[in-house]
Structure formats: C-alpha cells, structure tokens
Amino acid sequence: MSALYDRIGTGYSLVRQPDPRIAARIDAALGKAKTVVNIGAGTGSYEPAGRQVTAVEPSAEMIRQRPPGAAPAVQARAEALPFADDSFDAAMAILTVHHWSDQPRGLTEMRRVAHGPVVVLTFEQGHPGTWLGDYLPQLREHDAGQTLPFEEYRRRLGEIEVTPVPVPHDCIDGFLYAFWRRPEAYLDPAVRAGSSSFRVLPGLDAGLSRLAADLASGEWERRYGHLLQFEEFDAGYRLVVAE
User: Fold this and answer.
1) Is 231 helix (H, G, I), strand (E, B) or coil?
2) How far apart are CA 156 and CA 100, in angstroms?
3) CA-CA distance, 36 to 113, in Å (whole number)?
C-alpha cells in the first residue's frame, strides 16, 4: 500500500517524540476508554499507556519505525477502517487528518467504529500559525487548503468541544510550529525532515535564507523577540473531542 510517508517518513521518529504535556491532554480526553483505535498512528506518538490500543497506519515506512512494544498496527486507511461498528471504546487521530484523501469520510469512519469519545488533534482553519509564515507564506496557504472547518467535524462526529492546545516553548515534539521560540531550529535539515510541509512544498530556500540572515543580524529578535518571554504559545493547534 503506497502512502505519502513511505516517501517522506524516513527518520521521522528521530524528530517526532510525544510531548508529555500534550499527551496528558489527549489521555484525559479519552476518559475511561479501555480500548482505543489510533488512526494515522505513525510511529506511535501519543498512544496512551494502560489502554488496549490498536494502531491504523497506511505507511509501511512508519510502521517499520514503531518501537518494540508499541501497539499492534494494521496497515489501512482512515477512509476505510477494517473494523465492525462500535468495535472500540474510543478513537483518536493526532495531527493526521490533514493527510487523509477524504477527510469527512475518515471522520465518519472514526465515529462508526467508536461508541465513546472521538479525540482529534488538528489545526484551526484560518489560524495564522506563527511568525514562520512571514518568511514562508507558502505554509499558510498550504495550511488553509488542508484543514476542515469545525462545522464539518460537527456534521460527522456530532456535538464537539474544541479547545486550544498551546505549544510549550521547549516542546519535544518536532511538529511544524513547535519551534516558535527556537527559530534557529528551522535552519536544521534534520528538524525540517520531521514536518511534512517542508518535504512537500517547493520554493522554501529563499525564505529560509532570509530567516538565517535575520537571525545573524538581530532583525528576527527585533521583530519577534517579545515572544521570548512566553512559556507557551497558541499556534493554532486544537483538540476536538466528540463524546
């Protein structure tokens, strides 16, 4: 089964590690669920301990990188989950919905197979993200075209609660906007390799060169140095929970 991350996922697990503060929010949202299906599970980040987890992941490369002892993984897609109705107490999907070929269908499938909470960590449509978009406007255009409005989540999942998930300044998970207070990190190819946006978007070199120049000259700090006083930042990430 071919998948995007068969091409771009090499080395993903080196950069993408679950941040315990974000993990705690996800775990709390799952409530008392004992059986959980993790859709778009990747290498296993944020799979809760103490629960019976079944992972669903389309990419063989990502499944290969799952650590020993990780939950068993089924190679399948969100849009066609190979499970009967109400097979699990809960379903979760963490920073993956934007990769699905049919996002509404995938959400419908999550609701079908879980009789309890559906928990999704995603990105708010129209949110500007961080200052990184000033250097790489392609990212904002890309984000806007990838995310669903929350009204679509309501149509597919039922009543939902949407809460911000601020990004800690020292977040250990290397997703796109994790480095809002560590701008030099974006100049590291290994860091960029942990975000699909840097793998699939062309024409980013000029913006990255401008970032490097502004860091060297002090211009970045002049424009954005006020952020250095913050412990966390709302970069647009949202936890969607449907009971």
Assistant:
1) coil
2) 15
3) 10
Domains of the chain, by residue range, sit at: 4-242
Q: E strand or H helix at 162, and its extent? A: strand 161-164
Q: What is the pLDDT of residues 119-130, one digit of tens each?
A: 999 999 999 999
Residue 173 DSSP one-character state: B
pLDDT of residue 13 exceeding 80, the answer is no
User: What does the pLDDT look like over 194-209, one tens digit per residue?
Assistant: 888 888 888 999 999 9
Candidates 3.20.20.10, 3.40.50.2300, 3.40.50.150, 3.30.360.10; CATH matching 4-242: 3.40.50.150
This prediction's pTM: 0.92
Q: How far is CA 78 from CA 10, 87, 164, 212, 219, in A?
A: 21, 15, 24, 39, 44
Contact 173, 19 (CB under 8 A): yes
